[in-house]
Amino acid sequence: MKKLFALFSVVLIQSSSAQDQMELGKTVYMQLCVACHQPTGAGLPPVFPPVIQTEYVSGSPERFAAMILKGVMGPITVNGMTYNNMMPPQEALLTDEKIAAAITYVRGSFGNTYPAVSPEVVKAARAKFTDRKTSWLEADLKAWPEGAASK
Predict the structure, then answer these.
(1) Is 58 helix (H, G, I), strand (E, B) or coil?
(2) For the chain, what is the domain count?
(3) What residues contact residue 110 under an 8 Å CB cut-off, 6+ apart?
(4) What is the pLDDT of residues 5-28, one digit of tens each?
(5) At what angle do helices 2-28 and 96-107 cross, to 10 degrees?
(6) Helix-then-strand count for the chain, H and E
(7) Does residue 52 lie within any of the structural domains?
(8) Which residues lie across from 78 on neighbouring strands?
(9) Does residue 42 sit within a domain?
(10) Residue 47: its pLDDT value, please?
(11) Range of the domain at 115
(12) Sign of CA pseudo-dihedral 149, 123, 20, 30
């Protein structure tokens, strides 16, 4: 019985932690991302792309983190539509925890059903690209190795 209680406690803590991450992610999204990507995640075509069922949301978590950290400069094609704007870098504004939470929220909302992303993935991306001074271009993002940092 004691082992069952311990296991149940671990599951509750993990569930609570996942719920906390989703709640923090929603808060970050609603404060910073919503103006462009909208409350529905549909974006504002042809200015700001959606975050619904896109290769950038479903693909490499490292790439998604790097996009938020360093920003993205258009043009970029998402779901067959070209967008030509800029997503500003958030590395100076957001912690690894907040970026991971925002990514997790997007990957688990708007009909997306992709796994959560840990702050360690964001921390590693931040360290890996610390010397990069420019935003990402579509060619950089398309060349990303899909298996990179997939947790």
Answers:
(1) helix
(2) 1
(3) 40, 41, 42, 51, 52
(4) 444 444 434 455 889 999 999 999
(5) 90
(6) 7, 4
(7) yes
(8) 81
(9) yes
(10) 94
(11) 18-142
(12) negative
